[in-house]
């Protein structure tokens, strides 16, 4: 009987501590941006259905935005989505 009460009290305390940790985590991360999804040229090529060479050409023409991560070129998901939107409206051509 005493052992059961001890376990119950321990479980209550553990749950309370866990709630406090979760609340603290939420407070600390509130307002932080989610990390951007970055694609390689090869991945972007597959997503857009065009060649890697064409992806590079569009980047050089500044029709497709990209970022440099060290020596690598990466494309953000939102930039690829924006490119799709521009294609649909006729702006990307």
UniProtKB/TrEMBL annotation:
Regions crossing the membrane: none
InterPro entries, A to Z: HTH_17 (IPR041657), SinI_DNA-bd (IPR010093)
GO MF term (any one): DNA binding
Domain Helix-turn-helix as annotated: residue spans: 38-85
Pfam families attached to this UniProt entry: HTH_17
NCBIfam families, sorted: excise (TIGR01764)
The protein's name: Helix-turn-helix domain-containing protein
Species the sequence originates in: marine sediment metagenome
């Amino acid at each position: 009987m005493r052992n059961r009460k001890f376990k119950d009290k321990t479980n209550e305390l553990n749950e309370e501590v866990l709630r406090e940790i979760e609340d603290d985590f939420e407070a600390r991360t509130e307002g932080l941006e989610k990390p951007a999804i970055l694609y390689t040229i090869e991945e972007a090529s597959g997503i857009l259905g065009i060649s890697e060479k064409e992806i590079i050409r569009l980047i050089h023409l500044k029709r497709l935005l990209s970022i440099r991560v060290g020596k690598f070129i990466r494309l953000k998901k939102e930039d690829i989505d924006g490119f799709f939107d521009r294609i649909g409206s006729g702006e990307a051509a």
